[in-house]
């Protein structure tokens, strides 16, 4: 999420020692749980984006 950090707390059904990231690459079959603290200016809009890498977008 633009302008926000994410705290990863779980990967593939297993709790992990929390760590902070700005971006997260997720591969086929993987799952993550993240916490996002909404602490930025509430009068602005923030983008959440995803991108397909290493595959044709139609697959």
UniProtKB/TrEMBL annotation:
Stretches assigned to the Plastocyanin-like domain: 1-51
InterPro entries, alphabetized: Cu-oxidase_2nd, Cu-oxidase_fam, Cupredoxin
Domain of life: Eukaryota
GO MF term set: oxidoreductase activity
Pfam families linked to this entry: Cu-oxidase (PF00394)
Protein name: Plastocyanin-like domain-containing protein
